[in-house]
Amino acid sequence: MRTNIVLDDTLVMEAFRLTGLKTKRELILQALKEMVENRQRLDLRELRGIGGFRHDYDHKALRAGEGKP
Q: InterPro entries in the record, alphabetically (predicted)?
């Protein structure tokens, strides 16, 4: 899709510096991919009440190499 947009030059230059990308096209595509991935991630708050810990779960014993996983 071809489109013309006005971008904040300072923001674009900072994005180039942080990413190492060379073209605005690459930069915009990367930004769109990252935004979509970020928005598709489950919000941990949505998982409240799903699953849980086993009653015999002992994280300290697991760190020490004891007990079952």
A: VapB_antitoxin
